Amino acid sequence: MCISGVMVLDFLISALVTGYGCGLAMEGHEVTRSRWNGWACPWHPLQCLAWFFVVMFAFLHFGVFGHYILGYWRVLIFVVPAIILAVLVVSVIVATSINPAEPAVREKLAKGQFFRPKLDRTKYPHVIQDSYCQLCQVNV
Known about the structure:
The chain is mostly helical. It has 3 domains: 1-43, no CATH class; 51-100; 102-140, no CATH class. Helices cover 49% and strands 4% of the residues. It has 4 helices and 3 strands. The chain has a 3-stranded antiparallel beta sheet, with no helix packed on it. A hairpin with a 2-residue loop joins strand 1 (128-129) and strand 2 (132-133).
């Protein structure tokens, strides 16, 4: 049996998405811990895809295509995209690291009063009704 790079990449992405290796979700089990930020497993497939494309385009630009430019343009071809890439990477890291929870939920988390219950759809058709979260039991 031949194993291609696509099969390996598909396995790695599915392992990250299902949380295998993070101790959060296995097949047939439900995720019980809340995510603190974007670094918590399981990662979203688009998150993995975005990092793949950032690395791929950076490699193509700085490793392959940038060397074909001659003369004084070569400095601009490397410096300007390097600054843009640095700003992009720092912005994505900061945005991924921020906890997006409401302040009231963060207070409950800090006090240790929060666990993520399952929503009873017979009582509440929606998670948030009248600016009140039925899961977190806080005003949002």
